[in-house]
Specification:
The protein is mainly beta. The chain has two domains: 111 residues, PDZ domain (Pdz3 Domain); 160 residues, PDZ domain (Pdz3 Domain). Helices cover 10% and strands 31% of the residues. The chain has four helices and 18 strands. The strands form four sheets. Strands 1, 2, 3, 4, 5, 6, 7 and 18 form an eight-stranded antiparallel sheet that branches. A hairpin with a 4-residue loop joins strand 5 and strand 6. The radius of gyration is 20 Å and the shape is elongated.
């Protein structure tokens, strides 16, 4: 039985229409699973329906249906957060095993709204730094989350870097590459200065002009962002203040929107330290837009 994909008619969805809508975000594609063979994309794709079943937070109904369809073809309605449109994907349901669920993917139930909003663009990398050692590529790489959860706040990455540095732990991050159009997982070990400042070894930028690019340029629509505030950063030789146009042109305007780009030099010292890290909510806080943990669509999990 073949596996194929096709675009749905009238499938584009405006960003404002996504609030209140949820789906299963694909966090990982399992090797040799149906999902990877069908061309599903980790981080970008959300499963919003299986045949005629709309997905809900409680996955039991979906898993019962997939169990009935084991070995047969189903149609997934998949929404891509970069293309901002739906497509239909046909795949054969796996027979679940200890290591493989029905669809060969690990998913997380999340809101479709602002699904790719909170990304960090790698602008430069210091040679021989932790960022350099794990292969972060300037201009091409975007830090978008961890293996288990996509960022839903700009405060999450600073807290993770801070905690990893002070606990001397490695930090697993999900990185989207413009060169490949795919995500990969890196494991970085942030350093810490004598003053207690965490060092990642790269300059990061956020804001409207540093969100992940659309692949289909002809369909690009103007994106709006409410994240226009300037966050104060320490006055250090290596830090770049986002409201200082003399050091770097960080404010750009067009007829639709005015957005401040914010630059963070995580080389020496990290301007992440300007944030009140103790008040950052836990990334798995159930009151946030991410509403549940991950699942493999396996009846045994």
């Amino acid at each position: 039985m073949g596996i194929e994909s096709s675009k749905s008619a009238n499938s584009e969805v405006e960003s404002d229409e996504l609030e209140g809508h949820y789906g299963y975000r694909i966090m990982k594609l399992l090797e040799n699973g149906s999902g990877i063979r069908a061309g599903l994309r980790a981080y970008e794709d959300f499963i919003v329906a299986v045949d005629d079943l709309i997905v809900e937070e409680e996955e039991e109904r979906i898993m019962e249906y997939l169990e009935e369809k084991t070995g047969h073809q189903v149609k997934l309605v998949v929404w891509n957060c970069l293309d901002e449109e739906e497509r239909e994907v046909l795949l054969v349901v796996n027979k679940p095993t200890k290591d493989m669920g029905y669809l060969g993917v690990i998913v997380r139930y999340e809101s479709l709204f602002e699904a790719a909003e909170y990304t960090w663009h790698v602008m430069s990398v210091v040679p021989n730094s932790p960022a350099d050692e794990v292969g972060l590529m300037p201009q091409l790489d975007y830090i978008v989350g961890t293996p288990s959860v996509a960022f839903r706040s700009y405060d999450t990455l600073p807290q993770l870097v801070y905690d990893a540095a002070h606990l001397q732990n490695s930090l697993d991050l999900m990185v989207w590459s413009q060169a490949t159009g795919k995500v990969r997982i890196i494991s970085v070990e942030p350093e810490i200065t004598e003053e207690g400042t965490p060092l990642l070894g790269c300059e990061l930028a956020k804001g409207l002009l540093h969100q992940l690019p659309r692949r289909n340029i002809s369909k690009t629509r103007t994106r709006h962002s409410k994240h226009t505030e300037t966050i104060e950063t320490p006055n250090t030789p290596n830090s770049v203040e986002s409201n200082d146009s003399s050091t770097k042109d960080t404010t750009h305007s067009n007829s639709m929107d005015t957005t401040t780009e914010e630059f963070y030099d995580t080389r020496s010292p990290s301007s992440f330290e300007a944030r009140n890290l103790e008040q950052v909510p836990d990334i798995d806080d159930p009151n946030k837009q991410t509403k549940s943990g991950s699942t493999t669509f396996n009846k045994n999990t």
